[in-house]
Amino acid sequence: MTLAELEIDHQATVDHVTGPRPFIRRLLSLGVSPGSEVRVVRVAPLGDPIQVEIGRLQLAIRRSEASQVLIHSAS
Amino acid sequence: MSGAGPTLLRVATVGNPNVGKSSLINAIAGSDLSVGNWPGTTVDRLAVRFTTAEYEVDWVDLPGTYSLAGATSEEAITRRELLTSPPDVLVNVVDAGNLERNLGLTLELSELGLPMLVVLNLMDEAQAHGISIETAALQQALGVEVIETVASSGRGCERVKEALQRSRRPQRLTAYPDFFEEAAAQMPGNRWQAVTLLSEEVEGLSPTPLCKELRQRLELAQDPFLTVAEARLGWARRITQEVEQRQHGAASVTEKIDGWLLHPWLGLPLFLLGMLMVFRFTYLFSDPWIGYLDVVKSVLSGWLASAHLAPLLESFLSHGVIDGAGTVAAFSPVLFLLYLALAFLEASGLLARTTFMFDQVMKWVGLPGRSLIPLLLGFGCNVPAIYSTRILPNLGDRLRVALAIPFMACSARLTVFVLFAAVFFPKNAPYVVFGLYLLGLALGLLTAWLTRRLVPQDSDQTGIMEMPPYRFPTWKAISRQAWLRTSSFLRDAAGPILGAVLLVWALHQIPGGKMENSLYARVSQVLTVPLAPLGITDWRLAGALMPGFIAKEVVVGTLGVSFLGEDSTPPATLSGGLQQLGGGFIQASKATLWAVPQMFGLPSTQLPPDESPTGLTGALTKSSTPAGALAYLVFLLLYTPCVATVAAFNSEFGRKWAIFSVVWQLGAAYLLAFLTYRLLS
Question: How many angstroms separate the CA of residue B466 from the nearest CA in chain A?
Fold first, then answer.
């Protein structure tokens, strides 16, 4: 599944990041790499973007971009 | 070291965005670098010089970056600086609460082989989150000295200063897989250059044929870019696990605040309430002082009148110089307060939340969510709104938002709206005014949408954004920033405003005698020719658009003079004038105090009272039809807001775009005023 499909308050582990190089670089630099744990904190009031917690960091990411992050659910 | 004076020590700070690099330098050097709680405050190389006992320190603050190899301007600036003029000491500032992620850059920097210090900043925040770090172990793992600091309070900053001279090259570097190390060993240059050239294309670094060949061979196994990233991130993760202890505490303050502010239903109303408070704050606290400036102006003119100068000289000083300076000065209370509010939004972390909330809305016009802030500030005053587009990282977005801003009806335009609405549409005045605001907003958004192909876009733009923890900014930091911005406006705009006021004054004086015969009246009459299709046929209405170009604040006053004639200033005695100045000051101070409880009162839905000269309403009724009056208001809403806005535009985006925006506004104003008049008559 992808990060865009993860439900609020659910935890998952990143498997793979796809997309253009600058996008991957940006995610890597923010600590989103294969093996890192992510959690969806909330969805913006208008439905997009979503807020994702990674470590102690809070990220806002658009659904279209979140769908390029492949994950597997922890549970 | 010889005794021939202090040696020059070149220092550079590098670190992730929003970790307190500028704060650290300010704490060490007592300097004034702009500090904001949003990533990207420092977008250029900033330098500070100071002297210690042993050194003359030249300290460069580089923009926040996650890596040295990427294509963003922050990365390019940092890379260029570190490669072309490597500093004597590299100070890597690290967020103690986000160690793992920050170490990615630390490990990359280590490979440059420069003497280095790691500063663990934001220790207070980390501790509040139940995070503790074994500094000695981290020092061991990195092979460089590590110093804990809280830059905002100055804790540990002295130790950074002392440690500069004993900094050394990192002793431990990231180990890459053997096949990669073998290739790297064949490369010239420092380790960073070898690793980077093997793993990706970097602007400014040209790979040798050997390098290209090695890279191709590496690519057979895995994308070398990922090989490098995985090795560094893996090492950063292992170090972090070794040196960091976390206790899971209660939900942080930031989480609690976000629970309210970003709530699915409460978030939007709370945001609107917040913006309303910003405008009430600006209006309530600036209004008494704008009134006081009028008192100062009339006292100065009164003193002039009692000096028995030649009439032309008196008029020049009173209606040219004093009025011009007064117009400039009248901007400053509003500007200062709006800048204060903006600085608070920036430094507290609220700005990032706005982006999160409105990203979806602004996407319709192809802009990021945070562009809403400059647009909304435009309703207060267009000038700070134009400068505040700097909160947008992308130049193309900045320009498009700036082109939209002048259509936001600023508070100065309200005075004219109120007067005309009361005269021509007494029953529907609030709707007319509200409708004008909406028209301006619609046209602004339309402008942003239309220009989306016109301006360059960054290719590697992503919607990913960090949401920093809330931080309560210090009064000193935000007031200093607000003052710096206000004073830079006064410097930039004083000339154009004063010049324009003097020009209009001169038009009134030539050739002398009655106003109807003046050059001003004649130029105004010429203006009625193109304006006649809009239903604006009275030369006095047409003429007021000229000073309206200087500032909308003076339109009502100009109309008063054109319709009713100049009142002569009553002479004032020295003591009488001083009394007025003192009394006015006390009154303004009292009104400011009174504004505090009013801030929290319910907003009134009524329009502010019309304060135009008595007699003007009667004279205006005969000057136009209601359709013509509405067309006049539409024109006034949409054409160039003021010369200060043009000056701001010019200094931010250059002459070409400033001219473009003026022409675009004039065209839009003319077309929509024409349509308004045709539809109504």
Answer: 5
> pLDDT digits over B66-121, tens only?
889 877 777 888 998 999 889 999 999 999 988 988 999 999 999 999 999 999 99
User: Could you tell me if B82 and B138 are in contact, meaning their C-beta atoms sit under 8 angstroms apart?
Assistant: no
- Among the partner-chain residues A27, A30, A51, the one whose CB lies closest to the CB of B356 is A51
Query: Helices (DSSP H) in B164-266: which residue ranges?
Result: 178-185, 191-199, 209-221, 224-243, 253-261
Q: Which residues of B touch A16 (CB under 8 A)?
A: none
Q: Is A37 helix (H, G, I), strand (E, B) or coil?
A: strand
The confidence band for B169, taking pLDDT boundaries of 50, 70 and 90, is: very high
Closest CA to A20 of B461, B87, B235: B461
Q: Which of the four pLDDT bands, split at 50, 70 and 90, describes residue B459?
A: very low
Tokens of B453: 């192909």
Question: Nearest by CB to B359, which of A22, A34, A44?
Answer: A44
What SS3 class is residue B111? coil
Nearest to B101 among A31, A60, A64 (CB): A31
ipTM attached to this prediction: 0.92
- In this complex, the residue of B361, B468, B469 whose CB is nearest that of residue A46 is B361
Rounded (10°) CA dihedral B667, B668, B669, B671? 80
Q: List Cα–Cα distances, B449 to A47, B379, B401, in angstroms.
A: 22, 19, 10
C-beta atoms of A45 and B131 within 8 A: no
Q: Do B230 and A60 touch (CB under 8 A)?
A: no
Q: Using CA of residue B597, residue B257, residue B64, residue A40, what is the dihedral sign?
A: negative
Alpha-carbon distance of B301 to B315, in angstroms, equals: 9
Residue partners of B599: CB distance under 8 A and separation at least 6? B277, B280, B281, B284
User: If we measure between CA atoms, which residue out of B278, B194, B180 comes closest to residue B231?
Assistant: B180
Give residue-wise pLDDT tens across range B412-422: 888 788 888 88
Question: pLDDT tens across A6-53, in order?
Answer: 999 999 999 988 888 778 888 887 878 888 889 999 999 888 899 999
A48: chain B residues, CB-CB within 8 Å: 359-360, 363
H-run or E-run covering B514: none
pTM for this predicted structure:
0.77
pLDDT band at B64 (very low <50, low <70, confident <90, very high): confident
The predicted pLDDT at position B658 comes to 94
- Give the mean pLDDT of B299-320: 88
User: What is the DSSP annotation of B537-587?
Assistant: --HHHHHHHHHHHH-GGGHHHHHHHHHH-PPPPPP--HHHHHHHHHHHHHH
CA gap B492, B647 in Å, rounded: 7
Closest of B170, B110, B180, B182 to residue B143, by C-alpha: B170
Residues of chain B found within 8 Å of residue A23, distances taken between Cβ atoms: 460, 462, 464
Give the closest residue to B548 by CA, choosing from B449, B468, B421, B638. Answer: B638
Inter-chain CB proximity B359 and A58 less than 8 Å = no
Q: What's A2's DSSP letter?
A: B
* Interfacial residues of A (vs B; Cβ cutoff 8 Å): 20-23, 25-31, 33-35, 42-49, 51, 55-62, 64-65
Q: What is the largest CA-CA distance in chain B?
A: 93
Average pLDDT of the segment spanning B509-537: 88
Domains of chain A: 3-73 (2.30.30.90)
